[in-house]
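Case study 2.
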Amino acid sequence: MQPGSRAFLSLTFCWQIALMLCFPYDFGSFITFGTRNSTSLVQCYSTSIKSDLFSVLPITRTVTFTPRMRVRHIRVASKNQQKLSARIVEGGINREPSTPISIVLTSDYGGRLSAEVEAFCGTIAIARKKMSSQLRYARSLLLLVLVAVIGIVRVQAQPPNALSYPNVITFGSFGGSICYSNYITAKTLTTVTTRTFTFVPATALLYVICYNNLRLHPFNVQLVGGGLGSTTQTSIVLTSTTGKLVVSCDAYCT
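Prediction:
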């Protein structure tokens, strides 16, 4: 072995002895950023750093991550007997979510760098997300209830005398539940305007009512095809002689 190599090894050995005597290793030492005084914090990031190479000089590594929630507390712990230091060089505690955070880890006295980094986030974002989900569910439920109520109101047959409109034409005996409904509004250059509603009732057709609330625009109605009592295709033919046809028709079945 060359004299220079022996001198280098001796220097390295003396350096390590001096570190052990003057700067004793702190087993399980750790560095924290922020406070962890709330049980509502959850771990949102964790990683381990390990350097297998032994060095007489400080070893430095950088950990970078992007949290989805606001980071409240960061803990850096040594996993061996090496003394380490840590500092945040980008981002930080209580920054806006999606802001990258970079932490530089250093084994102050060389040796091997082995550490674990943990980040803990507040659950405010989780609560807001859960509340938003609950609001969406409540809105959907309210919409379903509203649709159901409208459906119930629509399927309840209305007798002719319940309509105070000036133009009402009915066929058959009032009863059953609504099985078809349609509306037309048309304006033409000719005096006579005709339109047709065609449908196939699922059950026997009992009652048809057509109406509008325009006193100056009366109309005529004819049932063509299957008609009352049938389950075959039925057409409601609407005719106006004023050049404007505005009519609503409801059909009721058993």
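The first strand starts at residue 30 and ends at 34.
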